[in-house]
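C-alpha cells in:
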C-alpha cells in the first residue's frame, strides 16, 4: 500500500508524503474539501460504511427488519458525500492528463474504487426493493440479484483504510525510500521463492510417496461409493492394500481393506491425489495443525519410514525454517528503517518525565540512579520529608505493603455453602480498608512532597492515583464484592518496582505505547476488514451459521487468527459450494488470511499450540460445495499466510526495536562482561587450586659426589636441570626434611635440555649497546608491571587511566549535558597506541587516526595474554611445589613413556596447511572445506563420533518385537561402542588424568556426561535384562541409555559451543 504511493505532486517537494489529503492546495474552489472538519467527517463516514456493510446480510435483516432501510439510507448518504469529494478532487487535479491527476494517484484510485462499490451496492439494493414490490419476479430474479450484490459488497470493508490512513504517514527522502524498498523487496522475493520451492517440492514428493490415501477398513460387502458409519471400523482406520507385513496397517476382526470412491465433501479435502490437493495438504501440515494425524494416516497406508522422513523434514523446513526466515527479513527491514531515520534526524531523545531519565549520583556511600527531577522540591513539605520520600526505607516499606496486600488477596477463599453471601464484611474486608487507607496516605504524602503538578508528571504516579480512587470506592460496603475489585487486583502491578531489571524490561517491551498500540490497532483493523469481507462472501450460503452475521464472522476469523480450529470454517464453506473453481479461491483466501494474521494474536495471547485452525476452513469448504471449495481454500490460506508470517514478524520486530540498547550501553556491558570473564580466567579451577591448600614439597636433588670438605644443601631439581645432565651424581629428595638414607639415588625422569638461559647476556660496548639494553630493561619492567596489575587494571583513555565506573559516569554526564539525547555510538577518547610487541606509547602522533575499536580489541587481547600468563605461572608453581600435581590418577609419572604414547594417540590430528611455509601465500584448494572438516577434531574423536552415530542408528531399530536382548546383530553395535569408549577413556585418563590435572577428562559438564554415558552403557551391557517391567529398575536403565546421542554434543566443538552459549544465556532469560 505504501510502496506504490506517489511521492508528491508539488514542485520542489523534497520529502515523500503518504497522506494524499494534505497534498491539496488551499484553493478557494475546493476549500471545503481541504478543511479539517470535512476530513474528519469523511473518516467517520468510512467507518459508518464498514458498519453498514457488516449489517447487510440476510440473517441480520431477518432478525432486525428495520436495518434493511437503515443500511440503505446510510449507504445513500455516504455515497453522495464520497461522490462529491471525488468530483471536487477531479476538478482540481484533473482526470488524466496532468502529472498529479486523479487517476494517476494510487490513493485516489483506491478512493475511486470504493466509490464505485458504493454506487453498485446502492443500485442493487434499489433493485432488491423493486423485486419486493413486483413479487411475480421475486422467485426468478432474487437469487440472481443477490449474487450480483456479492460482487460489490466484499471490497467495501477496505474503506476502513481511509480512517487510519493519516496515521500511516511518514516522511523520508525519496532516495532513502527507494533504497529501503529495493533491499526489502529483493529479500522478500528471495524468501517467497524459497517458500514456494519447498511447497512445490513437498507437493510433488507427497504425490510420489503416498498418492491416494483412501483405503479404509470396512465390513465385507460394503459399496465403495456408499459407505455409512456402521460399515467402518471402530475407530475409523486407514489401511494398506499390500500383503507385506511391514507395509502399513492390516485390518483385523474380519474387516477388509477397500478403496473408497466417495466425494471430497464426504471424505475430506486432505490427501495427495494430485498436485493442487497435495500442496493444500502440505500447507495445512506446515501450519502444525493436524500434521501428526496426517503422518499416522500415511504410516497406516504405506511403509512407515516414508511418513517419518517426509513429515519430520516438512516440519523442519516449512514450519520452522521458512517462518523464521520471514521474521528475520522483517526485522532486518525495521533495522534498516531505524538506521535511515537515525542518519537523517540524529539520535532519538528521551522524554524528561520518563522513568528512563536517570543519572548517577553519589550519596556519600555508594553510587545510585536517581530521577532527573527527583531533587526538585516543588511541594510544600520540609526538606526532611523530601529525603524520606527518596530514601530506600520508604520505597521498601511500600513494596512490602503491596506484597502483604497480594498475600491477603491470595488467601481469600469463597465458600458458597457454609457462608452466607450477605456476610461479606469479614476480616479480609477490614484488612482491605487498612491497606486502602495506607496507600491513600502514601499518595497524599507524595503530593505534599512533590506538588500536584510534579506528582502527575510521572505516569506511574497517575496509575497509583487511579488505584487510590478505585479502591476507595471498592471499600464501600455496597461495592465491596463488585467489578470494582479489579482495582484491588491491579495493585499487584506495583510489585514490578521490586525488581529494577523487570521494571526496565517491561518498560522496553511495552515501551513507547504508540509503536505497540499502532500495531495492535493495525491487527484489529485487519481482523475487522477480513471479517466483513468473509461475511459478504459467505453470508448467502443456506444452513451455514459461521458467516450469517457479523459477530459470527468475527468469531470465525478470530478463530483462524488464533490458529484454533480455523480449518473447520473453510472446510464447511467448501462443502457448501458446488463449483470447483470457487472452492479453490475460497481455500486460497483462507490460507492467506491465516498465514498473515494468526501469529499476531498468538504473540499477544500466547496461543502457542496452533490447535484446530483447519477446522473452520474445512467446514466452510464442505458447505460451499466441491466447485467453490478450491476458492474457499485459497481465501483462507492467503489469510492464514498473511497473519502467520507478516504480522508476527511485525510484533517481533517492534519488540526487538524496543529492546535495542544504546551503543554506549552496549559497549559498557561488553566491557564489564569481558572484565568479569578475564577475572575468572586468571584463576585456576577449584580442582587444581586444592593443591595450594597443602604444604609445599618441592622435588629436591643432592650432589653426593662432591668433596666432603663442606656441606651442600639440597637444591631444587628444576634448577639443577639447567646446568647439568641427569646422571648418578644427583639424588632426588622427596621432602627436604627427610634423611639422605631414605632418598632414591637416581631420578625417574629424562634429561631436559636447556632451551633458553634465564640470564641476560650483554657485553660492554658503546653508547648504542647501553641504550638498547636500558630500553629492553624498561620494556620488561613495564610489561611486568602491567602483568602484576591483573584484571583490575585501569583502562587507558586519552593518556590517562580510568576505571569502568568512572568511564560510565563520564558517559552519563556527557548524555546529560547534551540534553538527554542518545548518542548512536560511544565516543571514547583515543587510547594510547599499543604496538604489536606490547609497548604502550601514549604520545604517538597516530593515536587520533586509529579507530577506537582497534584499541579496545588490543586492550582485550593484552589482558587475555596477561591472564594466560598468570594461569601458566600458577601451574608452574604448583608443578614445582607439589610432586603429585599433573600426575594422572596419582600413579602415572609426568614424563613417563606410557603417558607420552597415550598423549600422542589422543592429540593426533589432521593438520591442514592454509599457507605455503616457504612463500607465505594461501594455498588454493578445491577441497578446503573438507580439509577443515577433517582437522576439526582429533582422529580419536572422529572414531568415537562414527562409532556413536552407528550405535545410535542401531538403537533406532530396537522395537518391542525386535529387542537388543534377543537380536545378536543389534548387540554388535552395543559391544563395539562399549569397547571403543573403554579404550578412549583409558587413553584420555592416562594422558590427561581424570580430575585433578590441568587437562582432566572431567573438567566440565561434558566430561561428567561422558562418564555417565559410559557407566550406563557398561552396566547395561553386563546386565542385559530380558524381562523389563513398567516402573522397574530395568526400565529406568533403558531410559538412561537413551541419553547416548548427547555424546555427539560433547565430541563436536561447534555443537558444544552452541550449547554453552545457550546455557550461559539462561540467567538473563530467567531474570
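Residues out:
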Amino acid at each position: 500500500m505504501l510502496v506504490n504511493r506517489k511521492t508528491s505532486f508539488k514542485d520542489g517537494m523534497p520529502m515523500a508524503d503518504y497522506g494524499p489529503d494534505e497534498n491539496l492546495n488551499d484553493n478557494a474552489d475546493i476549500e471545503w474539501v481541504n478543511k479539517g472538519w470535512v476530513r474528519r467527517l469523511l473518516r467517520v463516514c468510512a467507518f459508518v460504511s464498514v458498519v453498514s456493510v457488516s449489517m447487510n446480510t440476510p440473517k441480520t435483516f431477518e432478525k432486525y427488519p428495520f436495518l434493511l432501510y437503515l443500511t440503505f439510507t446510510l449507504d445513500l448518504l455516504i455515497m453522495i458525500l464520497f461522490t462529491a469529494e471525488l468530483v471536487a478532487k477531479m476538478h482540481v487535479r484533473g482526470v488524466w492528463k496532468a502529472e498529479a491527476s486523479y487517476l494517476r494517484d494510487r490513493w485516489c484510485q483506491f478512493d475511486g474504487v470504493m466509490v464505485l462499490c458504493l454506487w453498485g451496492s446502492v443500485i442493487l439494493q434499489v433493485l432488491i426493493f423493486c423485486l419486493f414490490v413486483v413479487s411475480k419476479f421475486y422467485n426468478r430474479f432474487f437469487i440472481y440479484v443477490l449474487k450480483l450484490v456479492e460482487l460489490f459488497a466484499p471490497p467495501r470493508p477496505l474503506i476502513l483504510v481511509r480512517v487510519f490512513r493519516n496515521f500511516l504517514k511518514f516522511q523520508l527522502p525519496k532516495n532513502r525510500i527507494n533504497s529501503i524498498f529495493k533491499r526489502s523487496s529483493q529479500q522478500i522475493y528471495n524468501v517467497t521463492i524459497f517458500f514456494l520451492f519447498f511447497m512445490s517440492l513437498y507437493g510433488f514428493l507427497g504425490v510420489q510417496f503416498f498418492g491416494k490415501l483412501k483405503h479404509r477398513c470396512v465390513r465385507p460387502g460394503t459399496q465403495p461409493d456408499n459407505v455409512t458409519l456402521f460399515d467402518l471400523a471402530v475407530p475409523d482406520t486407514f489401511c494398506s492394500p499390500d500383503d507385506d507385513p511391514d507395509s502399513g496397517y492390516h485390518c483385523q476382526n474380519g474387516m477388509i481393506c477397500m478403496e473408497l470412491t466417495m466425494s471430497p465433501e464426504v471424505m475430506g479435502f486432505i490427501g495427495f491425489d494430485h498436485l493442487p490437493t497435495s500442496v493444500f495438504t502440505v500447507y495445512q501440515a506446515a501450519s502444525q495443525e493436524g500434521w501428526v494425524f496426517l503422518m499416522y494416516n500415511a504410516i497406516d497406508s504405506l511403509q512407515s519410514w516414508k511418513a517419518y522422513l517426509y513429515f519430520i523434514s516438512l516440519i523442519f523446513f516449512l514450519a520452522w525454517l521458512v517462518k523464521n526466515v520471514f521474521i528475520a527479513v522483517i526485522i532486518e527491514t525495521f533495522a534498516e528503517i531505524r538506521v535511515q531515520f537515525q542518519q537523517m534526524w540524529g539520535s532519538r531523545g528521551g522524554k524528561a518525565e520518563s522513568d528512563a531519565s536517570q543519572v548517577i549520583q553519589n550519596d556519600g556511600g555508594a553510587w545510585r540512579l536517581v530521577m532527573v527531577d527527583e531533587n526538585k522540591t516543588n511541594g510544600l513539605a520540609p526538606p526532611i520529608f523530601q529525603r524520606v520520600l527518596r530514601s530506600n526505607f520508604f520505597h521498601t516499606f511500600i513494596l512490602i505493603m503491596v506484597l502483604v496486600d497480594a498475600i491477603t488477596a491470595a488467601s481469600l477463599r469463597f465458600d458458597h455453602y457454609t457462608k452466607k453471601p450477605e456476610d461479606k464484611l469479614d476480616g479480609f474486608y477490614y484488612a482491605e480498608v487498612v491497606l486502602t487507607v495506607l496507600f491513600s496516605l502514601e499518595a497524599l504524602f507524595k503530593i505534599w512532597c512533590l506538588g500536584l503538578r510534579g506528582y502527575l508528571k510521572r505516569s506511574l504516579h497517575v496509575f497509583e492515583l487511579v488505584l487510590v480512587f478505585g479502591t476507595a470506592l471498592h471499600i464501600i460496603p455496597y461495592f465491596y464484592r463488585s467489578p470494582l475489585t479489579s482495582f484491588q487486583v491491579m495493585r499487584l502491578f506495583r510489585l514490578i518496582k521490586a525488581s529494577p531489571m523487570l521494571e526496565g524490561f517491561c518498560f522496553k517491551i511495552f515501551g513507547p505505547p504508540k509503536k505497540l498500540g499502532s500495531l495492535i490497532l493495525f491487527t484489529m483493523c485487519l481482523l475487522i476488514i477480513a471479517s466483513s469481507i468473509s461475511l459478504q462472501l459467505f453470508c448467502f450460503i443456506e444452513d451455514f451459521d459461521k458467516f450469517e452475521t457479523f459477530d459470527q464472522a468475527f468469531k470465525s476469523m478470530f478463530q483462524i487468527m488464533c490458529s484454533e480450529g480455523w480449518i473447520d470454517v473453510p472446510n464447511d464453506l467448501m462443502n457448501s459450494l458446488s463449483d470447483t473453481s470457487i472452492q479453490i479461491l475460497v481455500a486460497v483466501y483462507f490460507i492467506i488470511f491465516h498465514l498473515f494474521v494468526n501469529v499476531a494474536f498468538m504473540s499477544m495471547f500466547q496461543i502457542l499450540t496452533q490447535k484446530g485452525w483447519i477446522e473452520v476452513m474445512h467446514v466452510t469448504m464442505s458447505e460451499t460445495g466441491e466447485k467453490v471449495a478450491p476458492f474457499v481454500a485459497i481465501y483462507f490460506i492467503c489469510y492464514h499466510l498473511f497473519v502467520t508470517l507478516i504480522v508476527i514478524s511485525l510484533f517481533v520486530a517492534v519488540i526487538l526495536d524496543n529492546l535495542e540498547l544504546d551503543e554506549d550501553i552496549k559497549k559498557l556491558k561488553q566491557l564489564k562482561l569481558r572484565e568479569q570473564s578475564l577475572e575468572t580466567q586468571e584463576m585456576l579451577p577449584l580442582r587444581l587450586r586444592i593443591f595450594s591448600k597443602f604444604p609445599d614439597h618441592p622435588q629436591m636433588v643432592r650432589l653426593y659426589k662432591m668433596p666432603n670438605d663442606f656441606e651442600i644443601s639440597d637444591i631444587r631439581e628444576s634448577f639443577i636441570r639447567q646446568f647439568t645432565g641427569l646422571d648418578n651424581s644427583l639424588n632426588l629428595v622427596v621432602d627436604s626434611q627427610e634423611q639422605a638414607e631414605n632418598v632414591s639415588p637416581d631420578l625417574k625422569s629424562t634429561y631436559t635440555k636447556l632451551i633458553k638461559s634465564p640470564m641476560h647476556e650483554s657485553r660492554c660496548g658503546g653508547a648504542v649497546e647501553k641504550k638498547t639494553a636500558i630500553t629492553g630493561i624498561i620494556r620488561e619492567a613495564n610489561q611486568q608491571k602491567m602483568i602484576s596489575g591483573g584484571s583490575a587494571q585501569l583502562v587507558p583513555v586519552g593518556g590517562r587511566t580510568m576505571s569502568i565506573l568512572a568511564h560510565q559516569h563520564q558517559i552519563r554526564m556527557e548524555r546529560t549535558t547534551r540534553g538527554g539525547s542518545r548518542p548512536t555510538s560511544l565516543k571514547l577518547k583515543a587510547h594510547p597506541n599499543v604496538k604489536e610487541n606490547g609497548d604502550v606509547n601514549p604520545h604517538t602522533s597516530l593515536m587520533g587516526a586509529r579507530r577506537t575499536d582497534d584499541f579496545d580489541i588490543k586492550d582485550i587481547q593484552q589482558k587475555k595474554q596477561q591472564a594466560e600468563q598468570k594461569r601458566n605461572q600458577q601451574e608452574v608453581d604448583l608443578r614445582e611445589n607439589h610432586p603429585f600435581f599433573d600426575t594422572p590418577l596419582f600413579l602415572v609419572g609426568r614424563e613417563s613413556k606410557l603417558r607420552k604414547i597415550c598423549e600422542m594417540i589422543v592429540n593426533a590430528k589432521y593438520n591442514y596447511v592454509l599457507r605455503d611455509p616457504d612463500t607465505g601465500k594461501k594455498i588454493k584448494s578445491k577441497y578446503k572445506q573438507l580439509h577443515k572438516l577433517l582437522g576439526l577434531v582429533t582422529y580419536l574423536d572422529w572414531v568415537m563420533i562414527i562409532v556413536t552415530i552407528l550405535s545410535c542408528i542401531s538403537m533406532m531399530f530396537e522395537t518391542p518385537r525386535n529387542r537388543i536382548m534377543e537380536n545378536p546383530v543389534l548387540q554388535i553395535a552395543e559391544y563395539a561402542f562399549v569397547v571403543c569408549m573403554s579404550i578412549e577413556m583409558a587413553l584420555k585418563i592416562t594422558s590427561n588424568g581424570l580430575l585433578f590435572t590441568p587437562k582432566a577428562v572431567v573438567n566440565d559438564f561434558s566430561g561428567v556426561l561422558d562418564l555417565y554415558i559410559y557407566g550406563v552403557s557398561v552396566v547395561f551391557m553386563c546386565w542385559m535384562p530380558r524381562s523389563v517391567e513398567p516402573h522397574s529398575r530395568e526400565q529406568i536403565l533403558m531410559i538412561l541409555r537413551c541419553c547416548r546421542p548427547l555424546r555427539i554434543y560433547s565430541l563436536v566443538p561447534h555443537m558444544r559451543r552452541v550449547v554453552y552459549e545457550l546455557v550461559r544465556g539462561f540467567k538473563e532469560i530467567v531474570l
